[in-house]
Design goal:
Rossmann fold; seven-stranded mixed sheet; alpha/beta; binds S-adenosylmethionine; about 180 residues; globular
Length: about 180
């Protein structure tokens, strides 16, 4: 996993302790973190689901990852309720998208489930905005600009009743939140 996860949050130790049945990765690009999660899946026996607006990289097509090509906030609602035990969010780093992702994700997270967000320091009170989606869906520039909060601020507000269990400044920052009991 990336330095913000391995060194910063020690997510491998978290995964070893949590022993999740299903891990969801949202935002994977060319699968750099996915490959590392696949090794962890082999060691710890979890099912790995990845959502990204890009197609699955060729070398990952015949592996155990279940790659869903689509938009996070449209694909997360299709997952079973309380079926996800560990989740990594790393999409386009803005308050509008992450608010939609959190809203859709909350009912999908199981008991003691953990959600980890990347880039929380670099985009704490600002927002990342991509030019376009890799798929045909039009990019919501105006909606994104309409939310005045920064990415990190929105996460803190939307998850104010969850516990922030770990935070790091390594490699643009990351935060881990645990679902309330
Ligand atoms: C920062 S990259 C992910 C990097 C990856 N986590 C890693 O560590 O290698 C963000 C990815 O999320 C995708 N993305 C952005 N917004 C998305 C959305 N709403 N739904 C699905 N994928 C999205 C981008 O196209 C890109 O592939």
């Amino acid at each position: 996993m990336r330095a913000h996860y391995t060194i910063g949050l020690k997510t491998h130790l978290m995964l070893q302790a949590a022993r999740p049945e299903v891990v969801l990765e949202v935002g994977a690009q060319n699968g750099g973190n996915t490959r590392q999660l696949l090794s962890a899946a082999e060691e710890l026996g979890f099912r790995l689901i990845t959502i990204d607006d890009n197609p699955c990289p060729k070398d990952l097509v015949d592996t155990e990852v279940e790659w869903i090509e689509g938009l996070s906030f449209l694909e997360i609602p299709k997952l079973e309720d309380e079926s996800i035990h560990f989740c990594f969010i790393d999409t386009d780093h803005n308050s509008w998208t992450v608010t939609k992702e959190i809203k859709e994700l909350k009912p999908k997270i199981g008991k003691d489930g953990v959600v980890i967000f990347h880039d929380t320091s670099v985009y704490h009170n600002t927002n990342g905005i991509s030019g376009a989606y890799a798929c045909s869906y039009s990019y919501p520039h105006e909606d994104i600009k309409s939310d005045p909060r920064g990415y990190g601020e929105a996460i803190e507000e939307e998850l104010s009743n969850w516990s922030c269990i770990a935070t790091t400044e390594v490699s643009c920052g990351a935060q881990a939140y645990r679902r309330p009991a």
